[in-house]
Amino acid sequence: MVPVSPEPSTPPVDETDLVARLQAGDEAAFAELMRTYGGRLLATARRLMGNDADAQDAFQDGMISAFRSIGRFEGQSRLSTWLHRIVVNAALMRLRSARRRKEESVEDLLPAYTDGGHLREYPERWDAPADTLLQREEVRAAVREAIEGLPEKYRIPLLLRDIEGMTTQEVADHLDITPNAVKIRIHRARLALRALIHPHVAASVE
Amino acid sequence: MNCHEFRQSLFAYTEHQLGDGERATLEGHAQACSGCGDLLQRASELTCKDFVAFLQAHLDDELEPEQARVFRRHLEFCPPCVDYLDAYEKTVSLGREVCQADGGLPEEVPEQLIRAVLEAQRRAT
Questions:
Q1: Cross-chain residue pair A47–B91, CB shorter than 8 Å
Q2: Is the fold of A15-98 the same as that of A107-204?
Q3: Mind listing the pLDDT tens digit for each residue in B61-120?
Q4: What's the CA gap between A85 and A66, in Å, rounded?
Q5: Residue of A9, A13, A57, A118 to mutate for B, most B C-beta atoms under 10 A
Q6: Which of A165, B29, B36, B116 has a 20 to 30 Å separation from A92 between CA atoms?
Q7: Do B83 and A113 touch (CB under 8 A)?
C-alpha cells in the first residue's frame, strides 16, 4: 500500500520556478506554496496533533520554518517530501513541548497469557474481510476513535510509519529513540488497537 | 487414549494442569502415535505469547528462517493464534485505510490560515 503522504495535493506545478521565487523572498509564491501543497500537509498535522487548532499551529510553524530555510533547498528531494518532513518536525516539536496529555498505559489492552504462554481468552474470529468491515461506519468510527485515543508514545510512531510512510529508521531519527523501540511501540499500538476495535468488529458481524 | 482425547488434553498438558497419571498417558500416546507426537513437539516449540511477539516481524518479513518455520508450525496447531493473526492483520489494514480515507482527500487550506501564516511571517522578519 502506498502511503498518502507526502504526494502533492494538486497537479504538478513548476517546482523550479516556485522555489526560485520563494528563494527570492516572494510572498505571493509563499501563498502559492501553501495553496498547492498545504492540503496534505494540514491533513498530516491534523493526524499527528489530533485536533484542528493545534494542527493549524503546527502547520504555521512548519510553513514559516520552510520559508526561512528554502534557501537551503537544493532540489535533491521533491519539494512535497521536503515540506512534509518540516511539518512533521513542527508537529513533533509542539507535541514535545506541550506534553498535554498524561501518558497513559496500554498494558490493559495487551493480550493476557496463562502461565503456559497460551492466550488467556480465546479471541472471537473477525469473520468479515477488511474491505467489508471498512464499509461499516460504526467500525470506521471505532478505528478513528481508537487511534486518536492511543497515548502519544504509541500513536505517533504508528502514524509516522503506517500512514506517513516513513521507514522504521526515519521514525527513530525523528523521535530520537532506537529502531527497536519504534518497533515495540508500533507493535503495542497495534495490539491495543485490535483490542479497542474488537467489540465493534464482533458486534458488526451479522 | 485415542487421538481425539489427546487433542482435548493437550492444552491442559501444556498448562501443567494434568495429574501424573494423565500426563504419562498423554506422553505414552505421543510416543506411540507419530501425528500426535508431532503435535506435542509443536506445542512445546513456540507458545502463543512468543507467537504474538513475532507478529510484527512476520508482517515486516523480518523473521529468521527458523523463526518463520516455528511461526508457521504454530499456526498449523493453534486455531486461536490463526484468528489472532487474522485480526492483527485486519487491524493494520483498517488503521491505514481509515486514516488514508480521512486524510487522503486533500483538504483546502483555509484562506484565513494562509493569511495568518503570511502575517506571522511578516512579524517574524
A1: no
A2: no
A3: 999 999 999 899 888 878 889 999 999 999 999 999 988 776 555 578 999 999 999 999
A4: 10
A5: A118
A6: B116
A7: no
Instruction: Tell me the domain boundaries of chain B.
Output: 1-45, 46-125
Query: How much is the ipTM here?
Result: 0.78
Q: Which cell is A75 given?
A: 532540489
Higher pLDDT, residue B102 or A48: A48
DSSP per-residue string spanning B52-115: HHHHHHHHTT---HHHHHHHHHHHHH-HHHHHHHHHHHHHHHHHHHHHHHHHHSPPPPPHHHHH
- Sequence spans of domains, chain A: 15-98, 107-204
Lowest mean pLDDT among A73-82, A138-147, A185-194, B83-92: A73-82
Nearest CB to B117 within list A44, A64, A186? A64
Whether residue B83 and residue A139 make contact (CB cut-off 8 A), yes or no, is no
Please tell me whether residue B19 adopts helix, strand or coil conformation.
coil
Q: Which residue of B has its CA nearest to A64?
A: B121
Is the Cβ–Cβ distance between A188 and A154 less than 8 Å?
yes
**So what's the architecture of A107-204 in CATH?**
Orthogonal Bundle (1.10)
